Amino acid sequence: MTTKKMKRLPKSVTEVFNKSRSIQLDIGCGDNKQPGYIGMDYRATKNVDVQHSIEDLPLPFPNDYCRTILMSHLVEHLKPWLIIDIFNELWRISRVGGQLLIAMPYAGSFGFWQDPTHTKPWNEATPTYFDPSKFLYNIYKPKPWRIVRNAWYQTGNMEIIMEKLPLSHGIETPGGYDNIEPKPIEKKSKRKVKK
Q1: Of 64, 101, 132, 179, whose Cβ has the fewest other Cβ atoms within 10 Å?
Q2: What's 41's domain CATH number?
Q3: Is 150 helix (H, G, I), strand (E, B) or coil?
Q4: How many helices and strands (H and E) does the chain possess?
Q5: Is 108 helix (H, G, I), strand (E, B) or coil?
Q6: 55: closest CA among 133, 116, 119, 126?
Q7: Which run of H or E residues covers position 58?
Q8: pLDDT of 179 higher than 50
């Protein structure tokens, strides 16, 4: 992640934060910002409160600023080599217990393949790379999230809800955050049936 200076937030955004001590952020909102959310997009449209690309890190928000982050049909457009850094940055700006809401087309679905700007599909296993209770987490060891919902339809969309966990759910190491070793798989005994 770069160490660029954070941009100043518009007064309207800081006013929302000062009233409720957190915000709901709709990243990649375009013209479809959800009611009650602050909209962030790289394009300047009438509904965008913060013009900033999610791939331009760091994001222009202080630590623990968001109670909810929505990314609807955005993740599949991101550069795959930035995904871990982006999710770590989303973790930074979320408060503990804050939720990350993701909607996207399922890997291999018509909805994924129809758009020429889609870069990397996800399937039901992909979110488990971010949850320290799952085996795949130990590959990259990003900042910890807990999967609350992971619904998918092979011919349609995925809906994922993740919740920010405190770092106490993992042990910081030079390579990331280690969690308790996964439990070994128990071997099932093969009993011979007597005839």
Answers
A1: 64
A2: 3.40.50.150
A3: strand
A4: 4, 9
A5: coil
A6: 119
A7: none
A8: no
113-156: pLDDT as tens digits: 999 999 999 999 999 999 999 999 999 999 999 999 999 998 89
Q: List the domain range (segments joined by +) for residue 137.
A: 16-98+107-148
At 114 the three-state DSSP class reads coil
CA 146, 104, 48, 8 dihedral sign is: positive
For residue 29, which of 15, 43, 17 has the smallest C-alpha distance? Answer: 43
- The position carrying tokens 């919902």 is 149
Cα–Cα distances (Å) from 74 to 6, 90, 111, 129, in that order, read 22, 14, 13, 18
49: its two tokens? 């409160």
Q: Is 81 helix (H, G, I), strand (E, B) or coil?
A: helix
Do residues 133 and 170 lie in contact, with contact meaning Cβ atoms separated by under 8 Å? no
* Residue 21 token pair: 């001590």
Residue 183 is predicted with a pLDDT of: 47
Residue 101 β-bridge partners: 70, 161
Total domain count, the chain: 1
When pLDDT is cut at 50, 70 and 90, the band that residue 19 belongs to is confident
What residue type is 85 in one-letter code? D
